[in-house]
Amino acid sequence: MAEIIEANSEAAVVEAIAAAAAAGRPIEIRGAGSKAGLGRPMQAGSCLAMTGLSGVTAYEPEELVLTAWAGTPLAAIEDCLTAGGQALAFEPRDLSAVLGGTGLQTLGGVVATNLSGPRRCVGGAVRDHVLGLRAVNGMGELFKAGGKVVKNVTGYDLCKVLTGSFGTLAAFTEITVKVLPAAETEETLLVLGQDAAAAVRLMSQALGSSANPSAAAWLPGPLAGRSEAAGLSGGGAATCLRLEGFGPSVEARRRALLDRLGSGSQVVLLAAEGSRRLWRQLRDLLVFVPGRPDFALWKLALRPSDAPALVERLSRLDGALPFLDWGGGLAWLGLPCGDDAQAAAVRDAMPAGGHATLVGAPAAVRASQPVFQPLPPPLAALEARLKGSFDPKGILNPGRMVATA
Amino acid sequence: MEMPIPDAGALSRRRQLIDGLRAIVPGEGVIVDEHELAAYESDGLTAYRQIPLVVVLPETALQVASILKLCHALEIKVVPRGAGTSLSGGALPLADGIVLAMGRFNRILAIDYADRTATVQPGVTNLAITNAVEARGFYYAPDPSSQIACTIGGNVAENSGGVHCLKYGMTTNNVLGVELVTIDGEILRIGGGALDAPGYDLLGAVVGSEGLLGVVTEVTVRILPKPETARALLVGFASNLAAADAVAAVIGAGIIPAGMEMMDRPAIHAAEDFVSAGYPRNVEALLIIELDGPAVEVDHLVQRIEAIVQDCGATVIKTSTSEAQRLAFWAGRKAAFPAVGRISPDYYCMDGTIPRRRLPEVLDGIAEASTRYGLRVANVFHAGDGNLHPLILYDANLPGQLEAAEAFGADILRMCVRVGGVLTGEHGVGVEKRDLMSEQFNEVDLCQQRALKTAFDPPGLLNPGKVFPLLNRCAEMGRMHVSGGALRFPELARF
Fold it and tell me: Which of A125, A369, B214, B259 could be bridged to B180 by S-S, CB 3.0 to 4.6 A?
């Protein structure tokens, strides 16, 4: 059992990592642990628990900026933003229903994993909203990156590099994010019965038009049935287009989309509450929850136009159930895990330029299969040098992203 | 401005370098004649000039890779250059380095309307991307004022912004991937195939790295559907404070306009004198607020904003009812820099960002310094995102004025940092603000950034002397230097 060090202050983070660095001792950086099962399993003798470093330190709605300690629960930040009529535009996911855990996650964990929700295809990823960080590198040095204003090009954009680094480069202590007004209203058009090819065509047309949907997903019949959305119990596939914004605008864009679809399509309209429920289910992957216990979850990133062929290839795998998000630019795949999460077959099915991440599987499988897409050697070498530039002794979350030598 | 002392060894290898470059790039792609080299001696920051050792104009990524390998082997420094429109001296040559000019990389390689991406060579201009896709109803969103000339490769290097980045983001939010050649001649593909790339976000590191990490030879950008319509409001206020409050109130009401610009009284008058845009002269501050999107949405928001600014004490409110009128509202703002150039022999343009609520005190501070230095100042301001462009008026022919203007500019940037802002919102650090970096970052912060540089460029041959303070600190401070009222690219709008 790892020794737990509770970090209640920035100084405590510095002290803990400096001590680990001096001893050359690996240390795990941990938020609420909701995504501890994401990434390769690692062995570290000590664990730095960040949840004590908590609290929103500055929130200025009119500046579009919020600053909080890294261990602040995401829920606390969302409560704060809701009160200000704002939101995190990258729609952070809560994967606790599929990965286990209590649903508690920290801002630091959200930034460390760069997992963005359905709005990512138009509104940007977590990485696009991180304005500034204070963090402690693998030498126990506190440094800052970026700033606390929405427009800044001073120096390298280390915030981007640190976002999605899974705690392998530095432990965040304080994070400043760009926040945006929450949509005044939303609704979702469900187009029923389309196969993946027709759905991707429709989603691309819609995303490329002034209908400006804020999310576009396709659910095959079996998953559509689990969504519990009105009109989806019939067992057919559903293409889901979300419209958000000011009331009159949403209404006008809905009419434009319906005109585009013509009278031959079978369309169901989900009003605000139904729309919100559906996208929460897709965001948090709840459609996979009633699945079998022997379950692996893959996140597949690709060009939207490659999605129909991918869906076709995946249909040949045993028990594979994919759905498309981001207009086809993201496929979530649930399948029977077995010994290897069918890793070779899944990665073989990926189109050129795409990549596959094993988001959920038992630890033994995540230890034996690359969780993250293996990189070509020159890129892997550059990433290793990059890791060394933050954490020369390799003590921070060793092995979480790539196996240590 | 002090640059690294030229390396005598590198200078002595010039012959060998030229022979090597000629073996890689045939014909006229290697420039060695002093008169021809002079065309590359500076970029948009004309205060600084330096004839480079050699200029090379490759056409393929393989040539770039061979050139970088050669320079690595010969220990020759490399200054990458796009159109040379940088306002921060990002492409300022080195006496002992080559300029790697990317102008021949001028082809649009692929446009994918279904996936809404365009893949282009780095020498393609920003505006050419929009021109290539607009017939199908698309455009490339970031629009730096030099967009007619600046290249997408330069935009990637500088993480360029523009008046619409409040709503649509900077370059970094609109680039999906690059092909990057490293100093050891490795050709890397970073991102480009999907919205998120595996591994660390190398793309995020490369965008905005000012040519210090690698040479970009291909860029994949997102293209967006062109907004159906756009309208603008021209709103005058009796004080800067009231205008700043109105900006906050608009954003506080949940509206993110496509652009929100502010000008103070001296800037309004200079612009009105120059282009007769129809700006009111009896106001202290003017806002231009632009909305874009479906007509129904734009009309709806125009009404809401009219009510908000009324509540904030607007003394003049005009709303565009035609495209011609919208463009007229912009004409004065877009002419602000040359308009100021008309009323003063020289001016410096600063580029700090501040938390917007600190605007009144920063403007007071600027006014106080203006009195102290005896130099006039006109302020234009990307108000929505807090990006200030104070223009300091001076006359370089009067003894001491140049130095006073420099000191004034540095004071402004220090003030930006002191109120919680940053040194540069969109122009980049370059050589211009290099020596002010330690105002914003401490030694550990800067060391961490330098460590990143070393991971990409271990020998430190790519664009040295930029972004980071030299070990021996230099007294020269940041500015955009405009001599005789003329920019280096007088045909380019700057705003």
Answer: B214
